[in-house]
Design goal:
The protein is α/β, with parallel strands linked by helices and about 170 residues long. The chain has helices spanning about 15-25, 35, 50-60, 80-85, 95-110, 120-145, 160-170; strands at about 5-10, 30, 40, 45-50, 65-70, 85-90, 155. It is built from seven helices and seven strands, in the order βαβαββαβαβααβα. Strands 2-5-1-6-7 form a five-stranded parallel beta sheet. Strands 3-4 form a two-stranded antiparallel ribbon. This is DNA topology modulation protein FlaR.
Length: about 170
Amino acid sequence: MQPKIHIIGSVGSGKSTLARKLSATLDLPYYELDNIVWRRVPEGPDIRNPDEERDRLFHGILATDGWIVEGAHRNWVQPSWERADLIVYLDTPIRKRNYRILKRFLVQKLGFEKGNYKQSFDMLAKMYRWSYNHARTDKPKLMEQLKPYGDKLVILADNTELDRVIRHVRGDKR
């Protein structure tokens, strides 16, 4: 049976990087929840999917044998927490998140890396706001919502702790 993993964290915490690494290591597909919420329009701006379409796409993923989903969303993703074998919360320090947010902005703005959305200074400001608000308001609410799933929750200080996640998936809870 293939594992089902949900990765959560603030913007810049390393969710996508960890999901890509786990996907390659475990040979599982991964899905960015932002790409389920938004219909990407290359010439922009992106269009928010109606809730019904978002939910249809999301439940289609959950119906498959094994998956990795990543995203900071918390109000509509509870079915994945219920079905997940492992929930990983990336509790990355804010200074590291801030660095990653700026680095992502620069490499995508300069065209060295393709992103899911068009980089703008307005979006950069939103990212920093989301990052700062995460610790103050989002994280406490999220931890409360995750209490029923504590037996499958792993909190990591960074996405570099890939080995710890792999051990957990394989049954070694150290």
